[in-house]
Design a protein that fits this description.
By secondary structure, this protein is α+β, with helices and mostly antiparallel strands. Helices cover 35% and strands 20% of the residues. It contains 20 helices and 28 strands. A six-stranded mixed β-sheet has the order 4-3-2-1-5-6, with helices on both faces. α5 packs parallel to α6, α12 packs parallel to α13 and α17 packs antiparallel against α18. It is globular. 48% of the residues are buried.
Length: 615
């Protein structure tokens, strides 16, 4: 039987445009590259080096030209740190990557350690001799993130010293830096002009007596100056820096080859444009005037701090002042985000209908599923990318929280297994992020129990009402309580911030024990509890929500759900839901049917009517 026979009303599976399935890691390359780095260390006269996952901008995604950790160790996750000496190589990753990291590196040479239980500083202090000199690239580490490692090492008599990066010296085939264009957004998409944003920023600066603020995060730069780019995968970022004085014209530092007559004209009068290579000299010049300079010690490179301090600046070390106003979406941004979720919901409904038709026949692979979902998103003319590499985990691969399917790992979906798909799109109107776990056949009672407990947690967050000033850390337990009742939990946060046609992961607010920033109206967050049984299956249900002022209780906040897509009713143990939870789910499904249904063809609309029927 051909795929056409199985899915007569849908096109054949197309090639992916936005995502590659190439196996990016090769453990056989770890040994020669470690040897080459160790030769460099000996020539530099140091005992070891720290290699973080980050680039100079501390982003979750880095250009291929800055993927040093992946080049050296093979590990391609979004967070990690390697330490290499003449005798040891350690790779520190968090709990999301404890399965992925050993599979991607050479474990005969590299010790993989989980930072949930093993902290880099104390571990290195124990394994390095007193008097050792450990190097670090001052452009790739921030003062805040390096501080606990520095403290542990100094207490053990080990010195941390800034050095040139030895990985760069051995990387002969290093890719070129990104050369993507700069797009200047209009007021109809941003809701606020750069001039207005600068005025608000300067009001904040004046309260702390700052003569200037230094911005190093691409999302802050893009939001403040209303620009977007294509410098990193799946995030519409322009990589650069900015210096904003309390008075006068800001300076925007971007690669000179990105600047055209058109974008120079669009930014004329808003910012002075200079090449990224001039940034360090500009910092020194700023500091020489004995200015009071604000920078974020958690996100700005150590080199920024040392240049400013050495040249005589008075340092103001506080959180990036753009992060909070960026997180509070204005009415235009929220309208765009709602539109993006609706467009995405149409694509996801088509995908889920296709999946239900195809999955029981047993010839789908994880890559097939990614390609088909992407193709439905690409049918929308305003879709410009996915918002991150799709997590497409069938059966046991669904238990790998941040699983990335490759040609090597690609697995067929066996009928009856659970299928977890976590994905998102970048539309001109906004950014989306959605996870659905689907049945491909009869589910076990245990699977239904766990799915329903995850759903109850997601509904609990969706229905939450809380006083202004409440942080995400205070409501995180609402999502976990039903799993805790049976001695289970999940090892990731319940929610993260989401940008407006920016990064799918943004701070400073979220829903997890680590998020202590109070939630405010306009913040868009994910709501994604889960459950994972290693080697068998994974479950996660995710909607995006926006914080809003409660209509009925002044001084209180609650959530509006943005995501519009059915939740698999076949996996619900209805007897575990109380009346309020059933009412919420039925109302949500009625809304999905009402808002998405009219945009579907007759066959898919019929599927949606069944998928959203009341329980």
């Amino acid at each position: 039987m051909t795929r056409k026979d199985i899915m007569p009303d849908y096109k054949a599976i197309p090639d992916a445009k936005y995502q590659s399935f190439e196996e990016k890691s090769d453990p056989t390359q770890v040994a020669p590259r470690l040897a080459a780095v160790r030769t460099q260390l000996a020539a530099m006269g140091i005992d070891g080096i720290l290699i973080p996952r980050t680039d100079v901008h501390q982003g979750e995604y880095v250009p291929d030209s800055d993927a040093r950790l992946a080049y050296l160790t093979g590990f391609t996750g979004s967070a990690g740190l390697a330490a290499v000496t003449a005798d040891i190589a350690a790779l520190f990753v968090d709990s999301r990557y404890t399965l992925q990291a050993p599979a991607q590196t050479d474990t005969a040479l590299v010790t993989v350690l989980d930072t949930t239980t093993v902290k880099p500083g104390p571990w290195l202090a124990e394994h390095l001799p007193a008097g050792a000199r450990l190097g670090f690239d001052p452009w790739l580490h921030t003062p805040g993130r390096l501080a606990p490692i520095r403290e542990a090492l100094e207490n053990a008599g080990i010195e941390l010293i800034p050095v040139e990066n030895p990985v760069d010296a051995i990387w002969d085939d290093r890719p070129d830096a990104p050369k993507g264009p700069i797009e200047v957004l209009g007021h109809n998409r941003t809701g606020k002009s750069t001039e207005a944003k600068l005025a608000e920023l300067r009001t904040t600066m004046s309260k702390d007596g700052a003569d200037a603020v230094v911005l190093t995060l691409p999302e802050s730069l893009c939001w403040l100056f209303n620009v977007r780019g294509r410098d990193v995968p799946h995030n519409p970022f322009v990589l650069g820096f900015a210096i904003v004085p309390a008075e006068g014209t800001p300076t925007l530092f971007v690669a000179d080859n990105k600047l055209t007559d058109e974008n120079r004209q669009a930014l004329e009068g808003i910012a002075e444009l200079r090449d990224k290579g001039e940034f360090e000299a500009a910092l020194a010049q700023l500091a020489a005037a004995e200015s009071s300079v604000w920078f974020d010690p958690e996100t700005a490179p150590i080199r920024v701090k040392s240049v400013l301090a050495d040249a005589g600046a008075r340092l103001i070390e506080k959180r990036d002042p753009v992060l909070l106003p960026k997180a509070r979406k204005n009415d235009v941004e929220l309208a765009g985000m709602r539109e993006a979720q609706k467009l995405d919901g149409i694509a996801v409904a088509k995908f889920l209908a296709w999946f239900d038709e195809a999955a029981p026949h047993g010839d789908l692979t994880e890559i097939d599923i990614v390609k088909m979902l992407e193709s439905f998103r690409r049918d929308e003319p305003t879709a410009v990318d996915i918002s991150f590499e799709t997590i497409s985990g069938s059966g046991p691969n669904g238990a790998i929280v941040h699983y990335r399917v490759s040609e090597k790992s690609n697995r067929g979906l066996n009928p009856g297994e659970l299928m977890l798909v976590d994905s998102g799109g970048q539309y001109l109107s906004g950014t989306t992020d959605i996870t659905r776990t689907m049945a491909s056949g009869p589910a076990t009672d245990e699977q239904k129990d766990r799915f329903t407990r995850v759903l109850k947690g997601m509904i609990a967050i969706s229905r939450a009402r809380f006083p202004a000033g409440t942080a995400g850390s205070q409501i995180d337990a609402l999502a976990r309580q039903f799993l805790w009742q049976i001695g289970k939990t999940y090892n990731h946060g319940t929610g993260h911030g989401v940008g407006a046609f920016l990064s799918v992961h943004e701070g400073p607010a979220g829903i997890a024990p680590s998020y202590t920033v109070p939630l405010e109206a306009g913040m868009v967050l994910s709501n994604e509890p889960g459950y994972y049984l290693e080697g068998q299956y994974g479950i996660r249900i995710e909607n995006l929500i926006v914080v809003q002022e409660s209509e009925d209780f002044p001084g209180y906040l609650d959530f509006e759900t943005l995501t519009l897509a059915p939740i698999d009713r076949r996996l619900i143990a209805v007897e575990l839901l109380d009346a309020a939870e059933r009412d919420w789910l039925n109302a949500y499904h009625a809304r999905v049917s009402r808002e998405i249904g009219p945009h579907l063809d007759t066959q898919t609309r019929g599927w949606l009517d069944q998928a959203t029927a009341p329980i």
